[in-house]
Amino acid sequence: xxxxxxxxxxxxxxxxxxxxxxxxxxxxxxxxxxxxxxxxxxxxxxxxxxxxxxxxxxxxxxxxxxxxxxxxxxxxxxxxxxxxxxxxxxxxxxxxxxxxxxxxxxxxxxxxxxxxxxxxxxxxxxxxxxxxxxxxxxxxxxxxxxxxxxxxxxxxxxxxxxxxxxxxxxxxxxxxxxxxxxxxxxxxxxxxxxxxxxxxxxxxxxxxxxxxx
Length: 213
Prior knowledge:
Largest sheet: 5 strands, antiparallel
Order of helices and strands: EHEHHEEEEEEEEH
Number of helices: 4
Shape: elongated
Distance between the termini: 21 Å
Strand content: 25-35%
Mean pLDDT: 91
Helix content: 25-40%
Number of strands: 10
């Protein structure tokens, strides 16, 4: 897996990718997922899987769409069926590719940094020494990706779907540049982990200087 993070990175939001870069990443992750290649981790980094619940919903919707497509194909005039087939294939590639990106882009943690990653969306880099507390906290934050919280001026969410399962309290405000407007000075960060209790324990261990298995 190509690692979008670097050895030396600035805290805060990582920049947006171009459409071409995004497409290349999706196709690469899709190919790696189909080949069942393990996700590569460099150095002392550990992974924190996320978004399994969102993928389950997407798989269910995709299966229903495929069944519907078979019915629709029988109703489409023969001359237009190749176009309909192309549309179905493209939709399937995009959907499965989206899921592959979330599976192959887990959050990462090492001795110094927590990388909150969303696969197809943006990422957030948080120094370990700026984390004051971490806890499991199931909630909802409208929209997806890296965004502000409507009911909290000093908080952001970084997740694939609107659901969040983890909350970080920071020792000092972290400047987070969103797509529009001025940076948010975030004191709280909400994100997702497939196993919140295990993720919280891993982050706490990193806060105490222990990220080894």
